[in-house]
Design a protein that fits this description.
The protein is mainly α. The chain is about 85% helix and about 0% strand.
Length: about 475
């Protein structure tokens, strides 16, 4: 629960930051930063050896392993920062906007700063010390938030986002050494052991980055900075109610999966429970956002962002599908199937490239978002198939049982909200409140009715209800 709370706190800060910046800055400001971030992220991930995963997976990691991992990460950061600085003019030419060049060159310093972070803080996650992990993440986020908002008020420019990023990275680097006693040194002693794991993590992370961001890279090429700004913000907002709500659960689950990997029955139980809870939250969150996107965007971001509504509606569905697949991906990594996960990402990229460059070579932002939705759907069925092969006792019926009730509940909710749109004439705020209340009620009642109809099994619904009862009991006890 602490892991969930810390991530939600982090995302709440991010949400507040986004809402304030959306009011202070224009879509094209977000577009400039998005262009620079896409180019930087691509180069950074192409050199990312994934040393964190190698350390978490190794229960016998020594100081030599940590020193080697830190050295590799620092080397990666130095090479990436150099390429970013020198290659900035090429990115400016690709996106057709010279303002990207100085932004990239300044932000290249943030890559070096991140590489200097104390590698010892990985132990917070590895040892499931979520209180320390939360404190570290919170300090970075809150300082970056204050710096970004202050600069935005003063400058009214996209440079506020650059200042906030650099400030957060510097604080993160300093705090990492304050919070953990490890003092890494230059070493390549355990290079072979770490690279044996990280080579496929590099392929996987590169594929995942392109799979997640190639659609935005193409939008930046085919549209101006204002359209890309709206598209990028829509992608960020769409991820918040589904993927971002589930990220804290995944952060806690990965070490738990690793601890149970020798007990296949327990690993299967943990996976099905995790998938059930995640879909119970993620599917209605994504579909619900798609149904209330016009009211959310207009009220929270302002009328200048209304062209982003179609993007939010499509990309929110992407988030719902990803809610079904995230825990499965961690199970495959736990079982050493990193290569297969990497190949899934690259296969989805291949499908997207074929669609974007041959079938619809002139596709705009909305069409690219639809292609992104299609490729994620293909990935869902592929991961399900791989899971049945990796966990011999796991069947497609087992997985379908965990997601069927949330899907039916979300469908009922979407139907009810569509009827409200057709029949209710009200202002944006009253309509939004009505939709939220009706959506929660219809979804909850539908899921609980189906759960009761099929025997009240020991699934995600039972787990969530137990946690709610325990929380209520604890509050009553503290109140008395």
């Amino acid at each position: 629960m602490l892991s969930v709370a810390m991530r939600w706190t982090d995302r709440l800060i991010g949400l507040v930051s986004t809402l304030i910046l959306a009011r202070l800055l224009a879509p094209e400001d977000f577009g400039i930063i998005a262009m620079a971030s896409l180019a930087i992220g691509l180069l950074d991930v192409l050199l990312d050896l994934g040393v964190n995963v190698a350390l978490i997976q190794n229960p016998k990691a020594t100081s030599a392993h940590y020193d080697t991992a830190w050295t590799l990460r620092l080397l990666q950061s130095a090479v990436a920062a150099s390429i970013i600085f020198l290659g900035a003019p090429l990115a400016g030419e690709y996106f057709g906007d010279a303002r990207v060049i100085p932004v990239m060159q300044v932000l290249s310093a943030s890559i070096i700063i991140a590489g200097l972070e104390n590698i010892g803080i990985i132990e917070f996650q590895k040892k499931m010390q979520f209180g320390l992990d939360f404190r570290f993440m919170f300090l970075k986020r809150i300082v970056g938030f204050i710096a970004t908002i202050s600069a935005a008020f003063l400058m009214q420019s996209y440079w506020a986002l650059v200042i906030g990023t650099l400030t957060g990275r510097v604080i993160g680097m300093l705090v990492s050494y304050r919070m953990h006693p490890m003092r890494p040194r230059i070493s390549v002693e355990k290079f072979g052991e770490i690279f044996a794991v990280s080579q496929w993590m590099l392929v996987r992370s590169s594929g995942q980055y392109l799979d997640t961001n190639l659609h935005k890279i193409l939008v930046g090429r085919r549209a101006d900075s204002a359209v890309l700004g709206g598209y990028t913000l829509a992608d960020e907002i769409s991820a918040m109610p589904s993927t971002e709500l589930l990220a804290p659960i995944n952060r806690a689950l990965f070490p738990a999966f690793v601890a149970a990997k020798e007990n296949i029955a327990e690993l299967k139980r943990l996976f099905l429970m995790a998938q059930g809870v995640q879909t119970l939250i993620g599917i209605p969150a994504g579909i619900g956002l798609a149904m209330v996107a016009p009211e959310i965007v207009g009220l929270l971001l302002g009328e200048k962002w209304l062209p982003a509504v179609p993007f939010v509606q499509i990309l929110a569905l992407v988030g719902s599908i990803q809610a079904i697949t995230t825990s499965g991906g961690y199970v495959l990594i736990t079982l050493g199937r990193v290569r297969q996960i990497a190949l899934i990402s690259w296969a989805q990229i291949g499908v997207f490239v074929i669609g974007a460059f041959t079938i619809l070579p002139d596709a705009g932002a909305s069409a690219l978002a639809m292609m992104r939705l299609a490729t994620v759907t293909i990935g869902l069925f592929t991961i399900f198939w791989l899971l049945t092969r990796a966990l011999e006792s796991l069947s497609a019926i087992d997985m379908a049982a965990t997601i069927s009730r949330p899907i039916f509940g979300a469908a009922a909710m979407a139907g009810a909200l569509h009827l409200l749109d057709e029949s209710l004439s009200a202002g944006a705020l009253p309509l939004l409140i009505t939709k939220l209340v009706v959506g929660v009620v219809v979804y909850t009642l539908t899921v609980l009715a189906l759960w009761a109809l099929f025997g009240r099994g020991r699934g995600a619904e039972a787990y969530v209800l137990e946690k709610i009862r325990a929380l209520i009991a604890a509050r009553r006890k503290s109140a008395s």
